[in-house]
Amino acid sequence: MIFHILQQIELKETQRDNKEGYVIKWKDGFRLKVKFAEYVRLHRILTGINERRIWEILRNGDDINQIINKVPDEFYKFVKDTVERLNGEYTTIHLEAMKIRNKVVDMANRKEQAEYIFKNTKYPGIVFNFLDDKQVVDSIWKLLKPEATKPFKEEI
After folding, report:
1. Beta pairing, strands 31-35 & 21-25
2. Nearest to 124 by CA among 133, 137, 115
3. Residue 26 class from Cβ within 10 Å (0-12 exposed, 13-18 middle, 19+ buried)?
4. pLDDT digits (tens, 9 = 90+) for 69-118
């Protein structure tokens, strides 16, 4: 019966921007929620976005604006803050490793370099990659990989 009633309702014509949908209430107290298509689309985005997903986008060099342009206002701050934090941490590690590399590059031998590196940084692997002219991007992003978390949720 409910399915028959819903088929007769033209919800496409009644959809409103920034609205979730309708609650249909019967006299006996039974209620049925009907969600608008746009709300369902945004909800899917929200439940799929967490720190790990943002990290993947940044690590892969993909355009974060693909997400930012599609999320509702309540979610925008979370995405922007996470992007800013991860990029900041990436830059901090990169600069620290490069600074240590610049101090040891002219040392007499690898043993001297290694002693200095292990005493003065939390990121010896990154410094050694710099010294050996290897890529460091993937190594730094791996250090920043967030734990698996539940999708974004804003407490009110």
Report:
1. antiparallel
2. 115
3. exposed
4. 777 666 788 888 999 999 999 999 999 999 999 999 999 899 999 999 99
**How far is it, in rounded angstroms, from Cα 50 to Cα 75?**
10
Q: How many CB atoms lie within 10 A of CB 89?
A: 13
111-145 residues labelled b (16+ CB within 10 A) or e (exposed): eebbebbeeebebbbbbbbbbeeeebeebbbeebe
Structure tokens given for 78: 């979370």
Please give, one letter per residue, the 3-state secondary structure of the chain. CHHHHHHHCCHHHHCCCCCCEEEEECCCCCEEEEECHHHHHHHHHHHHCCHHHHHHHHHHCCCCHHHHCCCCHHHHHHHHHHHHHHHHHHHHHHHHHHHHHHHHCCCCCHHHHHHHHHHHCCCHHHHHHHHCCCCCHHHHHHHCCCCCCCCCCCCC
Whole-model pTM: value is: 0.67
Bridge partners of 35, per DSSP, are: 21
Q: Show me where the domains of the chain are located.
A: 1-48, 50-148
